[in-house]
Amino acid sequence: MHDYLDDYKTILNIIMTVPYAVIATTGKNGNPWNTPVHVAIDDQFNFYWASTKNSVHSLNIQDNTNVFIVVFDSSDSLYEGKGLYIQGIAREITDNDELEFSKECMRKTISPEKLVRSSKPFISKRKMFIAEPTQLWINDAVFTEEGRLVEDFRRQIDIKKLVDYKKQNP
């Protein structure tokens, strides 16, 4: 049986060290769109980001709330990196309390010196979005004794168990 504790530790490391995610959306015409964004992630593994009101992915989310998110460290060596794959439902945040919470989550990911240089990141024509995860995976691989890749695959992670693990290991 697989030891998921290592996966949980890896996932927490990824979300604590990688500030960007790639969000895939689909428009009315069925065309896919992929966008890198700066994200914040709360204790329930909800993803938050700010985007301009007329960006392609923002408009796509108005028409189709299904998103797919990937978080990975692009500096990892070939075949050694881990990635987090999230299927979720996204929406614009309109509730004032939820909006303040999302902004606070984002502020925690920005150092004070960058916050000053970023020219008031939340006073703009941008909207705040949330993606609530419905499924989550982490990648893994099998290698020969010589280190040759045999197979790479995704392993599904139970989100509730991951949330519980994070609560017990802050």
Structure description:
The protein has five helices and eight strands; from the N terminus they run H-E-E-E-E-H-E-E-H-H-E-E-H. The mean pLDDT is 87. Strands 1, 2, 3, 4, 5, 6, 7 and 8 form an eight-stranded antiparallel β-sheet that branches. It has a single domain (4-168), classed as Pnp Oxidase, Chain A, CATH 2.30.110. The protein has helices at 4-17, 56-63, 96-107, 112-117, 159-168; strands spanning 20-26, 32-38, 40-41, 47-52, 66-72, 83-92, 126-143, 149-157. The chain is globular, with a radius of gyration of 17 Å. With 170 residues, it is α+β, with helices and mostly antiparallel strands. It is 29% helix and 39% strand.
What layout of secondary structure does this protein have?
Elements: H1 4-17, E1 20-26, E2 32-38, E3 40-41, E4 47-52, H2 56-63, E5 66-72, E6 83-92, H3 96-107, H4 112-117, E7 126-143, E8 149-157, H5 159-168
Antiparallel strand pairs: 1-2, 1-5, 3-4, 4-7, 5-6, 6-7, 7-8
Short description:
This protein has 170 residues and is an alpha+beta fold. 29% of the residues lie in helices and 39% in strands. Strands 1, 2, 3, 4, 5, 6, 7 and 8 form an eight-stranded antiparallel β-sheet that branches.
